[in-house]
Design goal:
Organism: Methanocella paludicola (strain DSM 17711 / JCM 13418 / NBRC 101707 / SANAE)
CATH class: Mainly Alpha
CATH superfamily: Winged helix-like DNA-binding domain superfamily/Winged helix DNA-binding domain
CATH topology: Arc Repressor Mutant, subunit A
Region (Disordered): 95-114
Number of strands: 3
InterPro entries: WH-like_DNA-bd_sf, WH_DNA-bd_sf
Helix content: 55-70%
Number of domains: 1
Largest sheet: 3 strands, antiparallel
Protein name: ArnR1-like winged helix-turn-helix domain-containing protein
Structural class: mainly alpha
Biased composition (Polar residues): 95-106
């Protein structure tokens, strides 16, 4: 009986939702989290705006955006990026950046740009 309960528990752990998988992917990198937060707050942004708001070097931002696009978190339309439905769901699952982690300047930049 106990063995069966353990198997059932491990089966449910293996079945993570798409939102949880994407949220886990996002939370593994600060820049991905910043981009997700900006797009969640503003709806869409250009490459240059994302670069300024997240203070990310050009080559790094290009790589992060490409990876996020491949994971179906964001979609690109010309030079504008927006969250996909999966990205929006992940943004609602993840907690917002806390000010104690040094993101208060980041949040201030977002407010100033809106």
């Amino acid at each position: 009986m106990q063995r069966k309960a353990i198997l059932l528990f491990s089966d449910t752990m293996a079945e993570a939702t798409v939102e949880e998988k994407i949220a886990s992917y996002i939370s593994g990198n600060v820049k991905r989290k910043q981009i997700l937060d900006v797009l969640h707050k503003n709806g869409s942004e250009t490459f240059d705006s994302l670069r300024k708001l997240t203070r990310t070097p050009k080559l790094m931002l290009e790589k992060v955006l490409k990876d996020m696009e491949e994971k179906d978190v964001i979609v690109r339309d010309g030079d504008t990026f927006t969250l996909t439905e999966n990205g929006k769901k992940a943004a609602n699952v993840l907690p917002k950046q806390s000010t104690r982690s040094g993101s208060s300047r980041f949040d201030a930049n977002i407010r100033r740009e809106i």
